[in-house]
Design brief:
The chain is of the alpha+beta class and 490 residues long. The protein is built from 13 helices and 16 strands. Strands 4-3-16-15-14 form a 5-stranded antiparallel β-sheet, with helices on both faces. A 5-stranded mixed β-sheet has the order 11-9-7-6-12, with helices on one face. β15 and β16 form a beta hairpin.
Length: 490
């Protein structure tokens, strides 16, 4: 290597001036090209776990193959489901985004949707609202101001209220503090706290690691464990009673108190989530060399206790997306209680309902006839109108409310994700509709967004009650949303 450098130096010293200029030009061009390439890569979007996020999203739409040489059939990629919202001039000098595409007319939408809304599968009571996201104008309505039981579409209201109260970056802490005669595990109300192996943000194992280290640094190898659930108040059981769709409400639980390995959908739940979580934590501490005296007991942390370990939930934006995509009742109820805490209300069913209602009113949404009874939509006492839901969705797309955007990004994609994964198999709305589903016995609802045939972003809500055939009602609702997506309607 030293000989090579000596030769290069002699060549450069003896080379003609013009040849030196050529070499400099080539080198400069190479550096410029590298800078441009680096900029292009950066512009392509952020990295996540070693893969470009956009690339991973595209790859996720294709199922895993059976082997290197045996690729299975490729799944179609989802079409764009959220039009640009900025309305800024495009590359061609014209406008792009929500102000560029022509809006459908009232008459056009009426001619398209009215016959579909008369489908007998929708039951005797049905309402509809379609709003132009760009202007906030209602383009179609049918009994849109009457409040009906929304089922799980009320999660849209819960999510918007939580994001408005706390912001998308808020995280929920689970902590360990010093107690009078030991340590106290303090529940913060994080439903994503997990005791399973993995790399979750809120891991009980990570909390045990940090706690064991802190205790050993203090020379403590034996202690008593108390657990504190005082952050929540009021009844723990939802009005529907013990149920596979929701755990008892507790500020401390692991894995949503599920008694199996599932992470979504119905599952048998623990009758005492906090005691089970504390028992698991004690076992983890023992595995790490910390002896726990007796069984953990319920109690309260001292007012000015010293914090010795903490883990935090994913940001609220991620909790909202998970709650909406999977229709997760436990997360939705936790979001409602976090809204109550942020609003100075008790973190109970009643306090959460009042806090969510107040937040929706502050956002300027139409609240006539509305009643929020819980955060998940399992309570039939919930009452909202189609107009409220459609305008909420339009507000979430408003550049003036960026904190609400996870309400849209969490919506399932028709035929691709969440509660819409198995729907729209033969519908044109597959991949172009994003919507939150709602289902109770006799109640079916659908509320979301669609980019129409002209590229206009529309928000819609369809609520029905008295349905006798849930599958038939779902198919009728899917046809309505598909019609919104496929409509030029002028």
């Amino acid at each position: 290597m030293p000989e090579a450098r000596t030769w290069q130096f002699r060549w450069w010293r003896n080379a003609p001036r013009e040849q030196r200029r050529t070499v400099r030009f080539v080198a400069a061009s190479a550096v410029t090209g590298l800078v441009v390439a680096t900029g292009a890569v950066a512009a392509a979007g952020p990295w996540d776990s070693g893969q470009r996020k956009a690339e991973r999203a595209r790859a996720a739409a294709v199922p895993e193959t059976g082997g290197e040489r045996h690729a299975g059939p490729r799944r179609p990629l989802a079409a764009p489901v959220l039009a640009p919202l900025d309305g800024q001039p495009g590359a061609g000098g014209g406008k792009s985004g929500r102000a560029a595409a022509p809006a459908p007319t009232r008459d056009g939408l009426t001619d398209t949707l009215k016959p579909l809304l008369e489908d007998e599968g929708l039951g005797p009571d049905r309402s509809a609202s379609v709003v132009d996201v760009a202007t906030g104008e209602q383009l179609y309505g049918a009994d849109q101001d009457t409040a009906y039981t929304p089922a799980s579409t009320v999660k849209l209201a819960t999510a918007a209220a939580a994001l408005s109260a706390l912001g998308p970056d808020h995280r929920i802490d689970t902590t360990v503090v010093t107690g009078k005669d030991g340590i106290v595990l303090v529940g913060g109300g994080d439903p994503t706290l997990t005791a399973r192996q993995g790399t979750a943000d809120a891991s009980l194992r990570t909390l045990a690691d940090a706690t064991a280290r802190a205790l050993k640094a203090r020379g403590t190898a034996r202690t008593k464990l108390t657990y504190d659930t005082s952050r929540y108040s009021g009844p723990t059981q939802h009005v529907i009673g013990p149920n596979e769709n929701i755990a008892p409400m507790s500020a401390l639980m692991v894995d949503e108190a599920r008694q199996d390995d599932s992470d979504r959908g119905p599952a048998e739940r623990s009758a005492d989530p906090a005691a089970d979580a504390a028992g698991e934590f004690a076992s983890l501490l023992r595995e790490r060399g910390v002896e726990i005296d007796g069984d953990p007991s319920g109690g309260s942390a001292p007012a000015k206790a010293e914090r010795i370990a903490v883990v935090s939930s994913p940001p609220l934006s991620a909790l909202v997306e998970r709650a909406l995509t999977n229709s997760d009742n436990d997360i939705a109820e936790a979001l409602a209680r976090q809204t109550a805490l942020a609003s100075g209300q008790p973190a109970s069913f009643e306090g959460a309902a009042k806090a969510v209602t107040d937040r929706l009113a502050k956002l300027g949404l139409p609240m006539s006839g509305a009643r929020i009874a819980d955060g998940s939509g399992l309570d039939r006492a919930d009452q909202v109108s189609a107009a409220l839901l459609s305008r909420l969705l339009a507000l979430a797309a408003d550049p003036g409310h960026p904190e609400l955007r996870p309400v849209l990004t969490g919506l399932p994609v028709a035929g691709f994700s969440g509660t819409l994964r198995s729907r729209y198999a033969d519908e044109a709305g597959r991949g172009t509709v994003r919507a939150k589903t709602g289902t109770l016995t006799g109640v079916n609802s659908l509320a979301g967004t669609a980019v129409d045939a002209d590229g206009r972003l529309l928000a819609f809500a369809f609520l029905t009650s008295g349905t006798g055939d849930p599958d038939g009602a779902q198919r009728a609702l899917d046809r309505l949303a598909t019609a919104v997506a496929g409509c030029g309607c002028r």
